């Protein structure tokens, strides 16, 4: 059944009243602003006409939705104050959720209403969905107008946001997973002061480490969850030569991918090297319960502060087929529906937040990687690396081992959560990896055919 | 509006039925009286509109409009946040009824609802009977029992989550004193569901107890005295006198508790996010997941409609059948 595309013109902004309460009652569930029915896609309408930024006066007050990654509320507020002193523009910092997913859900729910920020957190698994929905604008033009020197962004981090030859976000709190280890336990076990180079090596070390950990503890611990489990697992599936997907083509049924699933299965259920942390593996690591874990770069400062032992950081171990590390964390995007004045002010603040000095400041106080090459070499970071060499690991790992994430995880809405479901089946319930992957495959395929494919066609 | 019966005037007690004799006597009076009555009716209608209007308007805008809109959305394939959508008719409903996860969601909803509603009713009645006795510190006890109900569900969830923590929580500590190893509350089925049910029960027990307490205090003392004189034991009095008189209360609680339990969201969101592996995903929670996590707003609206129909059916059944068993004193 087809509907006239002309109805799209009838689209009108509606109040935000229903959206926040939508999930709370059956009556209002999902009853928010309505779409127009008809041809899908059409993302060109938001970005077609180029704005002449030199003719635009920046707005004097803008709003930023953040979840303060890496407990960064104070440093974010400090940067806002500095920006106000420099430009006179006020930035209202809104805690829009506890994590990337919550901010994104609020942002989705508020679309087509007036309750939108001028700058918003856009994590690895969410920015593309914003783009598919025409919710954000490309930043290339405005960053060029502001002389933001995009070439100085770490290429692996900036290119993550590239699609159709344009960039849809700017890297902000960017991370990789890191291997964290308890140096005191390592020493007690008579191990060299470094992380294991391969997963096989960690398994060898297990016998000597097990004697040193507390009764309920283990050599290695992990936690799962959305925006988390399917991220670190990329290292393991790549290590066996597999991947979630090749482009948008799911490859979960290949022997290599299943081998990846089998590897993590055995880590928990055969060799018993790993245990599942009830909630947050970093908490179990910091308390000394587990001798090592995988954590985000963004947890580094918190771990250094919380742990009573010396914290070691290392690259993620390799599998028989190599491995590598996914990049992750979040960028910042500018909503497409705001006025050019608001967009310009937001871009100015974005440029300020990510300039050499400020990305170094942010990195120093959280552990996230500096997003600019010049910042890595800056005096601030050099001094930091001198004092706490753990900060250096992520930056080196990025240069040595970074690999672009599999498209399906980051580009297909909901795929990350479904992949995490499959992993939980394997890790918590000891499910057969092939069966677990098979169970989520049709759901990921539906998500792709419903929510990605039609929009890609429309853009071509 | 001549068909409307005019109120009979006191000086006109033997007025014959309409259409009979003596039209010449009533005819001249009728228009005057009708005008007066119509005027009164208009005024009354105006007042009714004035007083009820704002409420009706709010209901229309915030309850019925979203309801209708949600019905409409359930026929679409719509990526939440996208400006465009595709009409799919009943496709979303077909998908829900055939999806492999539907059975699990329905079972979880059933277990959660029966456990929370049944548990809260039984325990709440027990608590109310206890609080109805002349005990010292009864006022304080009543306040304490009711307090959890007024706390925010999300905050309650977070606090209990700390207590349930199988490594560092208060509950594993207490279990440790008696030599029991803490279950893996967060990860191993069925413990996450048990945990959520316990917290929901704890939070709503005070409400049930309070309403029952009010019901108990309305039970006439002379009936209980009469039962005592007839030699009825306390248990027999409870069964044959008190409980039948409490049936209106029980019915009211059953309706409200069922509705709120089927719609509960905050505790689950705060504690388990529907996981692990969907083991705490109720129908209500699945609407949230489909809509806000998976972005499938049309499908989520279809699930919402299913939940709406379930609620409607449950309420209708209760009004039709259960209410017959209610004994109004």
Largest interface: A-B, 63 and 60 residues
CATH architecture of the largest domain in chain B: Orthogonal Bundle
User: What portion of the residues of chain B fall into strands of 2 or more residues?
Assistant: under 5%
Shape of chain B: flat
CATH superfamily of the largest domain in chain B: MetI-like
Instruction: Compute the number of strand runs of chain B.
Output: 2
Shape of chain A: globular
Number of domains of chain A: 2
Helix content of chain A: 40-55%
According to DSSP, the number of beta strands of chain A is 17
In CATH terms, what is the architecture of the largest domain in chain A?
3-Layer(aba) Sandwich
Distance, first to last CA of chain A: 23 Å
Question: Would you give an account of this structure?
Answer:
- The complex is a heterodimer of chains A (460) and B (329).
- Chain A has helices at residues 17-21, 44-47, 73-87, 100-109, 127-132, 140-145, 155-158, 183-188, 199-210, 229-239, 255-269, 281-286, 300-306, 340-353, 356-366, 373-376, 379-387, 390-401, 407-411, 415-429, 433-451, 453-459, and strands spanning 36-37, 61-66, 90-95, 119-123, 162-163, 166-167, 170-175, 177-182, 218-222, 245-246, 249-250, 274-276, 290-296, 311-314, 325-326, 328-333, 402-403.
- Chain A is an alpha/beta fold and 460 residues long.
- Chain A folds into two domains: 55-175 and 328-388, D-Maltodextrin-Binding Protein, domain 2; 177-326 and 407-459, Periplasmic binding protein-like II (D-Maltodextrin-Binding Protein, domain 2, 3-Layer(aba) Sandwich).
- Chain A is globular, with a radius of gyration of 23 Å.
- Mean pLDDT of chain A is 88; it is low at 1-33 and 40-47.
- Chain B folds into two domains: 31-87, no CATH class; 101-325, MetI-like (MetI-like fold), CATH 1.10.3720.10.
- Chain B has helices at residues 23-26, 29-73, 91-98, 102-131, 138-150, 153-164, 170-177, 191-217, 221-229, 234-262, 266-271, 283-293, 297-320, and strands at residues 76-77, 84-87.
- Chain B has a two-stranded antiparallel ribbon with strand order 1-2.
- In chain B, strand 1 and strand 2 (84-87) form a beta hairpin.
- At the A-B interface, strand 1, helix 4, helix 5, helix 20 and helix 21 of A face helix 2, strand 1, strand 2, helix 12 and helix 13 of B.
């Amino acid at each position: 059944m087809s509907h006239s595309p002309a109805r799209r013109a009838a689209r009108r902004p509606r109040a935000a009243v229903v959206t926040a309460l939508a999930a709370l009652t059956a009556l209002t569930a999902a009853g928010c602003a309505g779409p127009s029915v008809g041809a899908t896609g059409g993302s060109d309408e938001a970005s077609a006409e180029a704005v002449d930024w030199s003719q635009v006066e920046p707005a004097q007050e803008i709003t930023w939705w953040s979840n303060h990654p890496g407990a960064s509320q104070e440093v974010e507020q400090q940067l806002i104050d500095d920006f106000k002193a420099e430009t006179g523009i006020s930035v209202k910092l809104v805690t829009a959720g506890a994590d990337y997913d919550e901010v994104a859900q609020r942002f989705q729910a508020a679309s087509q209403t007036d309750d939108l920020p001028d700058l918003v957190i856009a994590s690895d698994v969410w920015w593309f969905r914003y783009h598919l929905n025409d919710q954000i604008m490309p930043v290339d033009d405005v960053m060029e107008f502001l002389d933001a020197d995009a070439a100085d962004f770490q290429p692996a981090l900036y290119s993550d946001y590239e699609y159709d030859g344009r960039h849809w976000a700017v890297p902000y709190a960017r991370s990789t997973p890191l291997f964290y280890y308890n140096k005191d336990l390592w020493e007690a076990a008579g191990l060299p002061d470094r992380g294991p180079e391969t997963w096989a090596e960690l398994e060898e070390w297990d016998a000597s480490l097990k004697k040193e950990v507390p009764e309920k503890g283990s050599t290695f611990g992990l936690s799962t969850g959305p925006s988390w489990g399917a991220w670190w697992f990329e290292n393991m599936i790549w290590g066996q030569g597999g991947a979630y997907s090749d482009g948008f083509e799911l490859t979960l049924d290949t022997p290599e991918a299943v081998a990846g699933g089998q590897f993590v299965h055995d880590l928990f259920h055969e060799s018993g090297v790993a245990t599942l942390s009830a909630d947050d593996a970093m908490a179990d690591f910091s308390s000394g319960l587990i001798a090592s874990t995988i954590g985000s770069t963004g947890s580094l400062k918190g771990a250094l502060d919380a742990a009573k032992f010396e914290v070691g950081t290392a690259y993620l171990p390799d599998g028989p087929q190599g491995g590598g590390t996914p990049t992750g964390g979040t960028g910042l995007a500018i909503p497409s529906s705001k006025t050019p004045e608001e967009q310009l002010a937001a871009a100015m603040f974005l440029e300020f937040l990510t300039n050499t000095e400020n990305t170094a400041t942010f990195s120093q106080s959280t552990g996230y990687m500096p997003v600019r090459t010049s910042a890595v070499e800056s005096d601030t970071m050099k001094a930091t690396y001198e004092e706490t060499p753990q900060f250096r690991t992520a930056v080196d790992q990025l240069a040595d081992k970074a690999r672009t994430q599999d498209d399906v995880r980051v580009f297909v809405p909901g795929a990350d959560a479904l992949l995490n479901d499959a992993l939980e089946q394997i890790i918590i319930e000891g499910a057969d990896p092939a069966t677990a992957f098979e169970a989520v495959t049709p759901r990921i395929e539906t998500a792709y055919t419903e929510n990605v494919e039609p929009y890609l066609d429309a853009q071509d | 509006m001549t068909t409307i019966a005019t109120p009979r005037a006191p000086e006109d007690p033997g007025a014959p039925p309409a259409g009979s004799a003596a039209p010449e006597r009533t005819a001249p009076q009728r228009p005057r009286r009708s005008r007066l009555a119509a005027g009164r009716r208009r005024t009354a209608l105006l007042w009714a509109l004035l007083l009820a209007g704002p409420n009706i308007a709010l209901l229309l805008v915030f309850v019925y409009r979203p309801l209708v809109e949600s019905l409409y959305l359930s026929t679409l394939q719509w990526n939440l946040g996208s400006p465009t959508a595709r009409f799919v008719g009943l496709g979303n409903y077909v998908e829900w009824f055939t999806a492999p996860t539907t059975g699990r969601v329905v079972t979880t909803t059933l277990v959660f609802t029966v456990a929370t509603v049944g548990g809260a009713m039984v325990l709440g009645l027990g608590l109310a009977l206890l609080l109805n006795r002349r005990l010292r510190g009864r006022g304080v006890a009543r306040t304490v029992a009711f307090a959890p109900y007024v706390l925010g569900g999300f905050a309650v969830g977070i606090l209990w989550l700390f207590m349930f923590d199988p490594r560092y929580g208060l509950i594993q500590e207490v279990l440790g004193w008696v030599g029991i190893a803490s279950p893996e509350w967060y990860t191993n089925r069925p413990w996450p569901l048990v945990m959520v049910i316990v917290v929901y029960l704890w939070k709503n027990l005070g409400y049930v107890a309070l309403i029952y307490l009010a019901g108990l205090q309305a039970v006439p003392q002379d009936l209980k005295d009469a039962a005592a004189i007839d030699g009825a034991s306390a248990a027999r009095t409870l069964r044959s006198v008190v409980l039948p008189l409490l049936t209106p209360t029980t019915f009211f609680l059953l309706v409200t508790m069922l509705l709120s339990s089927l719609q509960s969201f905050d505790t689950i969101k705060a504690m388990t996010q529907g996981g692990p592996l969907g083991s705490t995903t109720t129908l209500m929670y699945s609407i949230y997941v489909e809509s806000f996590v998976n972005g499938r707003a049309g499908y989520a609206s279809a699930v919402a409609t299913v939940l709406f129909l379930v609620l409607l059916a449950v309420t209708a059944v209760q009004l039709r059948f259960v209410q017959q068993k209610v004994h109004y004193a």
